[in-house]
Amino acid sequence: MIEVSKKCIGCTKCVPVCPFAAINMIDKMAVMNEACTLCGVCVQVCPVQAITITREEASARDLSGFKGVWVYVELTETGDKTHAKKIKQVTFELLSSARRLADELGEDVCAVLLTDKNHNYEKELGAYGADKVYMVEHDELFEYNTDIFTTVIVSLVTRHKPSIMLYGATIQGRDLAPRVASSLYVGLTADCTALAIKDGLLLQSRPAFGGNIMADILAPKSRPQMSTVRPNVMKMNEPVLGRSALVVRESAKLDKSLRRVKVLERKISHDGGGMKIENAKIIVSGGRGMKSKEKFKQLDELSKLLGGVVGASRAAVDMGFKEKTHQVGQSGTTVSPKLYLSFGISGAVQHIVGMKASDVIVAVNKDASAPIFNVAKYGIVGDVHEILPKLIEALKKN
Ligand code: FAD
Ligand code: SF4
Ligand code: SF4
Fold it and tell me: In this predicted model, what pLDDT tens digit does every residue of 8-30 receive, in sequence order?
C-alpha cells in the first residue's frame, strides 16, 4: 500500500519520475492511482518524506495468483559495427531449466526482455523454450542500469505475478536480482547449482560452508521465488527452430532522472585478447603443483597448440601464476568445456564444483590419491614437469 501523508508540500517532484504515470496532483497533494506498481521511485525523490510504502508480511500474502516461470534476458555487446546486442548464452541455459520446471508445474515460461531495440529476439527465446516474451522497448534501456532496470522489473513482476524468476549469476544478474528482491521484499538464492520442483515449490540447491555441503532452499511464503544461476551450470536444450514466442509489449515511462549512475567510459580488458574462459571448448588448467609463474607459462604454450584457454586453481591465482579472470571454481568461473586438462591441481571441492561438468577431464598429479582423479576420465600419476614438456614436444611434432 502507498500513502501520502499531510507532510506533502505539493512540490510535484514525484510526478515526472513515476515510470507509470501513477501520480496526479489533486488540491496540491500527490495522489496515487491504480497504475502504481509500488516501485518506490517516488519515495526516493520526495524532499519531505511524505510518501510511504507498506508491504504485506510475507506470511499474509495470497500466493495463489502467482504463476509462470520467468527468465531475465541478458543482452551483451556483439562488438560488431551494427552495435546490435546478442542474447547471452546463460539466458538460454536458464530458459532450458525454466522449461523443465514450468512443464512440471503446468505453467508458462516467460522471458523478460528490456531493450532499446528488439532485433527479433523472440525467435531465439522461443526456440529455447519461452512461451511468452514480456518486452519493454525504450531508449533509456540502451544499456544496463541498476535503477532503471530494477524499476521496470519490479513493475512487471507486480503486474503479472510470476511464481519463479531466474537470473544469470553474472555481473549484471548479481547486481539486478538483489535489488529486485529487496524492492519486492522477497528472498533470493544466489549461485544455485540445481533447481527442481518439490511439492509445487522451487527447490534451490547451492553449495554452502565453503562448498562442503549442499543446502536445499525453499521459499514457501514469498513470490516470486528467485534464484541466480551461474553460466555453464545448467544444460542448454537443443533449440527448436521455428518455435517462436508470443511477444507481450509492456510500456514504461522512463525518465532520465531515474539514472543515478552514468557510465562515462567503458574499458574492456581481455588479458591476451583471447577467448573468455567460460566459452572455451578446451581448457588447460594449472595449480600450485606448477610451482612457479615461469613454469606455469608452459600451459600457455600447450593451450595455444590445442587452441584452448588457460585456467587456474585459486592457489595458482593466489601465488600470482595467473590472473584472477582465469580462476576456475566456486569463487572463480564455472566452466564446461569439451576437454579439461588439469596439471598439479589437487581437486578441492571448491575447484571441482567449477569444472565437473566438463565432457572429458584429464588430470596429471604426482599423488595417486589426489581427489581430482575421482572426477577425471583419464588420470596420469606423475611429475607435471616431466610430462608437460613431453606433451608439448609431441604436439609440436604432429
Ligand atoms: P593444492 O591443493 O596445494 O594442490 C596442489 C597439487 O599439486 C597436489 O595435489 C600435489 O600432489 C600436486 N603436485 C605438486 N607438485 C606436483 C608435481 N611436480 N607434479 C604433479 N603434481 C604435483 N579453489 C579453486 O581452485 N577455485 C575456487 O574458485 C576456489 N574457491 C574457494 C572458495 C572458498 C570459500 C574456499 C574456502 C576455498 C576456495 N578454493 C578455490 C580453494 C580450494 O579449497 C583449494 O585450496 C585450491 O583449489 C587448491 O589449489 P591447488 O589444487 O592448485 O593446490
Ligand atoms: Fe511511486 Fe512507483 Fe507508484 Fe509511481 S509507480 S507512484 S513512482 S511507487
Ligand atoms: Fe508531495 Fe513529496 Fe510528491 Fe512533493 S514529492 S508532491 S512533497 S509527495
Answer: 999 999 998 887 888 999 999 99
Contacts of 213 (CB under 8 A, 6+ apart): 207
Ligand 2 — pocket residues by CB below 6 A?
Answer: 2, 18, 20, 22-23, 32, 36-42
Cα dist from 219 to 5, 182, 201, 206, 332, whole Å: 34, 15, 7, 14, 27
Residue 350 · residue 314 · CB < 8 Å: yes
Q: What fold characterizes domain 277-397?
A: Rossmann fold (3.40.50)
- The alpha carbon of 261 and the centre of ligand 1 are apart by a number of angstroms equal to 39
CA of 341 to the centre of ligand 3 (A): 62
Per DSSP, helices labelled H in the chain are 14-17, 41-45, 89-105, 121-127, 146-160, 171-184, 293-306, 314-318, 349-352, 372-375, 384-397
Which string of DSSP letters, residue by residue, matches 220-268?
TTSSSEEEEE-TTTSPPPPP-TT---EEEE------GGG----------
pLDDT in tens, 308-356: 999 999 999 999 999 999 999 988 998 999 999 999 999 998 999 899 9
Question: Domain residue spans in the chain?
Answer: 2-54, 69-255, 277-397
CA angle (282, 174, 238) in 5-degree steps:
45
Q: From the CB of 4, is ligand 3 less than 6 Å away?
A: yes
Distance 36 CA to ligand 2 centre (A): 5
Using left for φ > 0, alpha for ψ between -120 and 50, and beta otherwise, residue 10 falls in left
Q: What's the distance, CA 145 to chain centroid?
A: 15
What CATH topology corresponds to 69-255? Rossmann fold (3.40.50)
C-alpha span between 107 and 101 (Å, rounded): 8
Report the pLDDT value the prediction gives residue 35, as an integer from 0 to 100: 82
Q: 26 C-alpha vs ligand 3 centroid, how far in Å?
A: 11
Q: Which atom of ligand 1 is nearest to the CA of 383?
A: 19
Q: What pTM did the predictor assign? A: 0.73
Task: Indicate the class that CATH gives domain 2-54.
Answer: alpha beta
